C-alpha cells in the first residue's frame, strides 16, 4: 500500500513539473526500491504557481535517484540524490496567450497549489493513515539527501540586460547523533529525538550587469553555459559579480518528535558560517529597483490580464481603450454590494461543501456529482487566497465536530480521568505539563566573519564593514520571542577619503 502511495505522489506532483514521466514505469521502479531518472526536462509552466512575470525558457534535471529499502526502513537509510539542475528564466510575455489560454494556465496553477495545501490538512485518524504516518516517520528518521550542481538564472531582456541567479556546489543532509556522527536510527516504535546535519558548500547569489543573453539554441549549450558558472573548490569562477559571495555553512537540527510536552524545544536549529561576505554596487542597486518595479507593475495588472489586447497600442488603440474600460468596470464591480453579497453566498456554499467532503468518512455520506461540479466551479471563480481561506474555515469546523464526537464516545465508556479517551487525556497531560516559559523553537546563528561592502560604478570599494565572532540567539516561547546577539569586534572603513585619520 505504501509503495503505491509513494509512486502515486511522485507521479502526481513530480509530473506537474517534469515532462515525460510514465506512471507505469515510475510505479515499477518505486516498488523495486530503486528509482533513477535522467535527462529530464522541466515543463514550460513550472513557474506559473509563483504568479510572477517570469517564465521558464529552459529547465533541465539531469539526475534524480531514489533508493528506498522497503524491507529495512528502520535500519537502512532512504537515499535521495539530485544533481545537475539548471533553470534559465526570463520575463513573461503574456501577449502570446489568448484570454482563454491565460485562464487555463491560471486554473492549472491554482489546482497545483490547492492539491499541495490538501496534503497538509489533517484528515481522519484511520488505522490506514496511522500506519502510513508511522512508516513515513521511519523514512524521515533515516533519510539522506544529496544535491549537487544547482544553477537558477534569470536573464532580463532589452539592450542593457542584466542577469542574476543562485548557484550551489553541493548540499548533504543526513541523520546523526548528538555528537554529529552519522548514524542509522534503529527504533521499532519511532524516536523522540532526531538529529540532522546539513552541510552546504559554495552557495552564492550573483547579479551581473550588462550581461548578454546565453545561447539557447540547444540543450547542451544551455547546460554548459550554466554549469561553468557554478563556483566550486576546484574550479572557482572569477568573472561573476556576487551579491552574496560563495560560502560554506553547517546546519545542525534537533527535532523533538515526542507528543508529550517537556522542557526540550520542539526544534533547535544551529547555523554556523565561517566567512559570509555581502557586497552591493550602485549599478546592481539601480537594476534591483528596476526589477522590483517590474514585479510591482505586473502584480497591479495581474487581475486584468484577461482583458489585455494582444495587439500593440500603435496598431489598435481602440482595443486598449476597451481594455481600460473593462478593467475599471471589473475593479468597480468587485467593490459593489452585489459582489459582496455574492462573495458571502459563495463562501458559505464552499465551506459547507468542503466540510461535507472532509466529514464523508465519518458520516459515510459522499458528495454528489452535482456538488463536486459546484465545488470546482467555485474554485475556478474565486482567487486562490479566498479558496484557502474558505478551506481553513471548513477545517476548523471539521476539527471541532470530530472533537465533539470523540467526547461523546468517551463519556459513554467511563467517568474517570481516562474516560475522555487517549486523545483528550493526552491534551490534558500537555496542558498540565505546558509552561509559558518552555521554549518551543531555538534558533542560533554563528558567524566567524561577516562583512558588508558598497561598490561604485567601477566596482571599487566605497565602504566596508566587518563583524567578527557574531552570534545571534533566538528563543520562541508561547506568545513571546527573545533575541540575543553578540559581536566581538566591529570594523568600519571609509575607502573614499585618502589618508583619513578616522578610517
From TrEMBL:
GO terms for cellular component: membrane. It comes from the Eukaryota. One of its GO terms (biological process) is protein retention in Golgi apparatus. It is a peripheral membrane protein. Residues 1-418 form the Chorein N-terminal domain. It is found in: Membrane. Transmembrane segments: none annotated. Keywords: Transport. InterPro entries: VPS13, VPS13_N. Belongs to the VPS13 family. Mediates the transfer of lipids between membranes at organelle contact sites. PANTHER family: INTERMEMBRANE LIPID TRANSFER PROTEIN VPS13 (PTHR16166:SF93), VACUOLAR PROTEIN SORTING-ASSOCIATED PROTEIN VPS13 (PTHR16166). This is Chorein N-terminal domain-containing protein.
Amino acid at each position: 500500500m505504501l509503495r503505491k502511495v509513494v509512486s502515486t505522489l511522485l507521479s502526481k506532483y513530480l509530473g506537474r513539473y517534469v515532462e515525460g514521466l510514465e506512471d507505469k514505469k515510475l510505479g515499477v521502479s518505486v516498488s523495486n526500491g530503486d528509482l533513477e531518472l535522467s535527462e529530464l526536462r522541466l515543463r514550460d509552466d513550472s513557474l506559473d504557481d509563483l504568479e510572477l512575470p517570469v517564465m521558464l525558457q529552459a529547465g533541465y534535471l539531469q539526475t534524480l535517484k531514489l533508493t528506498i529499502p522497503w524491507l529495512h526502513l528502520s535500519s537502512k537509510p532512504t537515499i535521495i540524490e539530485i544533481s545537475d539542475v539548471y533553470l534559465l528564466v526570463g520575463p513573461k510575455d503574456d501577449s502570446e496567450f489568448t484570454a482563454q489560454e491565460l485562464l487555463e494556465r491560471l486554473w492549472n496553477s491554482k489546482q497545483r497549489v490547492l492539491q499541495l495545501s490538501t496534503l497538509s490538512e489533517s484528515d481522519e485518524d484511520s488505522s490506514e493513515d496511522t500506519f502510513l504516518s508511522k512508516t513515513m516517520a521511519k523514512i524521515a528518521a533515516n533519510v539522506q539527501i544529496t544535491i549537487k550542481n544547482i544553477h537558477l538564472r534569470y536573464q532580463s531582456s532589452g539592450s542593457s540586460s542584466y542577469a542574476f541567479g543562485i548557484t550551489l556546489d553541493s548540499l548533504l543532509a543526513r541523520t546523526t547523533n548528538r555528537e554529529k556522527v552519522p548514524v542509522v536510527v534503529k527504533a521499532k516504535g519511532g524516536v523522540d529525538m532526531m538529529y540532522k546535519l546539513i552541510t552546504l558548500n559554495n552557495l552564492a547569489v550573483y547579479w551581473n550587469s550588462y550581461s548578454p543573453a546565453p545561447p539557447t539554441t540547444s540543450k547542451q549549450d544551455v547546460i554548459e553555459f550554466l554549469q561553468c558558472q557554478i563556483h566550486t573548490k576546484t574550479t572557482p569562477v572569477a568573472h561573476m559579480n556576487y551579491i552574496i559571495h560563495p560560502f560554506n555553512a553547517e546546519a545542525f537540527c534537533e527535532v523533538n518528535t515526542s507528543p508529550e510536552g517537556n522542557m526540550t524545544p520542539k526544534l533547535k536549529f544551529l547555523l554556523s558560517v565561517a566567512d559570509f561576505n555581502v557586497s552591493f554596487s550602485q549599478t546592481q542597486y539601480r537594476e534591483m529597483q528596476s526589477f522590483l518595479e517590474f514585479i510591482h507593475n505586473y502584480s497591479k495588472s495581474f487581475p486584468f490580464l484577461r482583458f489585455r489586447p494582444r495587439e500593440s497600442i500603435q496598431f489598435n488603440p481602440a482595443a486598449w481603450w476597451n481594455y481600460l474600460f473593462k478593467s475599471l468596470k471589473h475593479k468597480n464591480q468587485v467593490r459593489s454590494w452585489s459582489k459582496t453579497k455574492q462573495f458571502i453566498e459563495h463562501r458559505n456554499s464552499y465551506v459547507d461543501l468542503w466540510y461535507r467532503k472532509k466529514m464523508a468518512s465519518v458520516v459515510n455520506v459522499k458528495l454528489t456529482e452535482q456538488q463536486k461540479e459546484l465545488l470546482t466551479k467555485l474554485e475556478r471563480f474565486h482567487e486562490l487566497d479566498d479558496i484557502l481561506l474558505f478551506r481553513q474555515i471548513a477545517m476548523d469546523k471539521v476539527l471541532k465536530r470530530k472533537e465533539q464526537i470523540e467526547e461523546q464516545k468517551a463519556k459513554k465508556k467511563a467517568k474517570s480521568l481516562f474516560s475522555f479517551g487517549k486523545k483528550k487525556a493526552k491534551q490534558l497531560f500537555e496542558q498540565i505539563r505546558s509552561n509559558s516559559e518552555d521554549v518551543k523553537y531555538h534558533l542560533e546563528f554563528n558567524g566567524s566573519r561577516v562583512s558588508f561592502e558598497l561598490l561604485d560604478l567601477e566596482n571599487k570599494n566605497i565602504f566596508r564593514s566587518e563583524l567578527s565572532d557574531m552570534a545571534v540567539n533566538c528563543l520562541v516561547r508561547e506568545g513571546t520571542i527573545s533575541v540575543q546577539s553578540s559581536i566581538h569586534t566591529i570594523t568600519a572603513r571609509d575607502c573614499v577619503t585618502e589618508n583619513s585619520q578616522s578610517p
